[in-house]
Amino acid sequence: MVGRRWTGSVLQAAAQGARRFGEYRTMIDGISDRLLSQRLKELEAAGLIERTVIPTTPVQIRYQLAPDGQALVDALLPLAQWSMRRTGPRGAGRRVPSA
Fold first, then answer.
1. When you count CB atoms within 10 A of the terminal residue's CB, does the N or C end of the chain come out lower?
2. CA dist 12 to 15, 36, 58, 93, Å?
3. pLDDT at 93
4. Which residues does the UniProt record annotate as the domain HTH hxlR-type (predicted)?
5. Rounded to an integer, what distance in angstroms lies between the CA atom of residue 89 and that of residue 75?
């Protein structure tokens, strides 16, 4: 699942704290609403993302890393750092590069 397109970007955005759907969309340049929704559902089903419903009007939904998701991000961080050293920064001006 981690190798699927955009999954790394969603995990990276989630690692920065609990977020609403629109915040993910803003942080991940180029991802469609449909694909973002699909990745969040997949990550939730895998136990890597937790979905919290806040009963307000309108209802708010927040997504954050689950403990297993945080462990995965921690494990992938050295690989991402190695990749950045080898290739240099890509996509200048983008906050979260696509996976």
1. N
2. 5, 13, 27, 16
3. 46
4. 1-91
5. 20
- Check residue 91 and give left, alpha or beta (phi > 0: left; psi -120 to 50: alpha): left
Exposed (0-12), middle (13-18) or buried (19+): which is 88, by Cβ within 10 Å?
Answer: exposed
CB 62 within 8 A of CB 54: yes
CA dihedral (69, 70, 73, 75) in degrees, to 10, reads -110
Q: Give tens-digit pLDDT for 55-68.
A: 999 999 999 999 99
Averaged pLDDT of the chain: 87
Q: Is residue 96 classed as helix, strand or coil in its secondary structure?
A: coil
This model's pTM is above 0.85? no
User: Of all helices (H) and strands (E), which one includes residue 51?
Assistant: strand 49-54
Question: C-alpha angle with apex 96: 62 to 49, nearest 5 degrees?
Answer: 30
